[in-house]
Amino acid sequence: MKVVIVGGGLAGLVTAWRLGQTGCDVTVIDPAPGTGASSVAGGMLAPVSEAWFGEEDRLALDLASHSLWRQFANELEADSGLEIGFKTEGTIQFAFNQDDLRDLARTREFQLSLGLDAVELSGAEVRVLEPFLSPNVLGASLVKSDHSVDNRALVIALITACEARGVEFIREKAISIEFETISDDSNVRAVTTEMQLIPASQVVIAAGAWSSQIVGAESLDVRPIMGEVIRVAPRSGAAATITHTIRGTVRGFPVYLVPRAKGEIVIGATQLETGFDIQPTAGGIFQLLRDAREVFPYLSEMRIVEIMAGLRPGSPDNAPLLGPIANHGGLYAATGHYRNGVLLTPATGDVMLAYLTGGTVPEYARAFTPERFTSLSGARG
User: Whole-prediction pTM value?
Assistant: First the structure.
């Protein structure tokens, strides 16, 4: 079995690694593996903080993947020999004014109604945990089970683990999927790049926001959604920082701060539909700095390390597309993860391994095949 994976972000890399562990012949096609949206993310593993009304099916998928993370992190670090910055201090959801406080209370009631982990904190209790937060933070929820990971370290570890398992990397741009038709069945036979034809018995489209741009995979309804992120670091000798992931709203605008090693903080993230333009906007960067500074005033004294933007892959319902693509034998999708690509990395690997090797697909993933939109289109027609 020859599996070709189009896309070297987290979804493609974890699929390749899991297949490589079984001894499969795997090739990843990507001009620069690990440099897309996977390198820009905040790295939050936060199914509870991101639980939302009416998205219970999606929450089940998020929680299932979250439950895999500790073992996944240990296994990947052992296989790659690298640390991935898996942090378990928890997440603080804050409220900055009375309107935000009321919204946070409603969110917490919803979380608790689902049996999730959320503990109410006063403003004073928040500052016991995070002394450098603004006195204007009125209250919060502590979600101990929501963790984080250094997404860039995760990408590097996955590439290293893939190479150790014999996965081949072809650093070229994939152009199209080639098919052969036998008895009215259309089956994949190869992937065409800018320079060569690569034979394949199975192909996984994991090209993130560019997935539906691959000729032969146009049926995947994936759109790019830009997110802007800022990385800051303390100046030499400074000690003020945060230890928890901090997220919430400042006068209605969402913002998060995720701690990294050596006092660095990742601040994010905006959401803009600008097509494939990934140039950061002045307004987006201003908004992030303004709101993050309101919550963490010491930010003014930190130095900016990087301003970046990436394109999240959004599906019509902003839930992932995992599994076979209708009417094309041997063609699969692992894309459309939108804001939760990092969180869903372990589940994506397990689900795609099951599909590609004829294993049992986990129940939590069966509602997220690309065919859910094909079925809807047929019903409407």
Answer: 0.95
